[in-house]
Amino acid sequence: MTNFTNNNSIMPQAIISAQQLTQKIQLGNKELTIFADLNLEIQQGEQVAITGRSGSGKSTLLGILATLDQAHSGKLIVCDEAVHQLNEEQRALLRLKNIGFVFQSFQLLPHLTAIENVILPLRLQTSFNYKDAEKKAFALLKRVGLERQAMQTPKVLSGGEQQRVAIARALISKPKIIFADEPTGNLDGETAKEIEQLLFELNREIGTTLVLVTHDVQLAAQCQKHYELLNGQLIDRTQGASI
Q1: What are the tens digits of pLDDT across the range 165-215?
Q2: Nearest 5°: phi and psi at 37?
Q3: Rounded to an integer, what distance in angstroms lies between the CA atom of residue 55 and that of residue 58?
Q4: At what angle do helices 159-171 and 130-143 cross, to 10 degrees?
Q5: CA–CA separation, 236 vs 243, rounded Å?
Q6: pLDDT for the residue numbered 80
Q7: Residues 40, 16: contact at Cβ < 8 Å?
Q8: pTM
Q9: What dihedral angle (degrees, nearest 10) is formed by the CA atoms of 78, 108, 163, 155?
Q10: Can you give the pLDDT at residue 12?
């Protein structure tokens, strides 16, 4: 009998796989465990939220998953790369090729225009061409509704407009993963909802994996997966089960 493979049964590919991640810090003569033996898999294209009270370690976890920091122990695979085996230069290259960032404080360079801020990640690429980069940046600014503000500097932009510039900057390199750390934390309620909607729209349109840290449980509930970091452990609030 001939066996046929059903393509619909193919499992989604994990773009982030963390196994037994543990993070500790030294406080004087004492060693403090932030979290221990965390396991987490994030599939390509997923929207994933990590919540937790202040000081729970959620931003620390995000920094490790984004390869900005190293865990005390455990294994981490990001975009098929064993991050725990890479040096800093190799991790930087991984970020350059695959990862975009959106921060609570926007982190735009004040002396650059909106379009120049968006172009910045492309300047790190060996194949950088300003005219091509400018065209890509303007198209993204148009997509986030800021084509008229392209030549303005951050000081004349509202908080919501600055975050839209930051989102465009995060997407300019066509990353596989966007990490967002409290992306609406500095915005008023109405503007925050607009930015949330924009992030989800772009996630669906482009297929970029979205991993965000937030205090906003309502925002987290809109994601496909919601995890809470509680007492050093990840709780799957999507299913209501510990992982």
Answers
A1: 999 999 999 999 999 999 988 888 889 899 999 999 998 898 999 999 998
A2: 55, 45
A3: 8
A4: 130
A5: 6
A6: 95
A7: yes
A8: 0.87
A9: 180
A10: 62
